[in-house]
Amino acid sequence: MTTSDWTKVFKQLKAKPVKMKKYIKHNAPRDRPTGQTHKKCSRCGKFGKGHISKYKVGLCRQCFRELATKIGFKKYS
C-alpha cells in the first residue's frame, strides 16, 4: 500500500468510530517487556545489538567506547 492508501483508509475509518477503535486495537504496537526493543541506549536512543547493560551502564557499544575513559574503565592490551 502506498501512503495515499493509508490516508484514504483513515479518512474512511474516522467516519466509523467503532471500526476505527477495532482497527487501532488490532494494529497498535505491543508493549514488549523483554528483547531488543526493550533495551535502549540512554545516550543516543539506539535499539538492538551491542547494548551494554552490565554494571547498569545502559549504553550502546559506540557510546560506551566514547565515554569509557570518562566513566573510569581502562583498556588493557
Describe the protein in words:
This protein has 77 residues and is mainly α. The protein folds into two domains: 1-30, no CATH class; 34-77, 30s Ribosomal Protein S14, Chain N (Irregular), CATH 4.10.830. 44% of the residues lie in helices and 5% in strands. The chain contains three helices and two strands, in the order H-H-E-E-H. It has helices at 3-14, 17-27, 61-71, and strands at residues 51-52, 59-60. The model has no long low-confidence stretch (mean pLDDT 84).
Topology summary:
Elements: H1 3-14, H2 17-27, E1 51-52, E2 59-60, H3 61-71
Antiparallel strand pairs: 1-2
Named CATH topology of the largest domain: 30s Ribosomal Protein S14, Chain N
- What string, H for helix and E for strand, traces the elements in order? HHEEH
At CATH's second level, what is the architecture of the largest domain? Irregular
> Order of strands across the widest beta sheet?
1-2
Poorly predicted runs of 5 or more residues? none
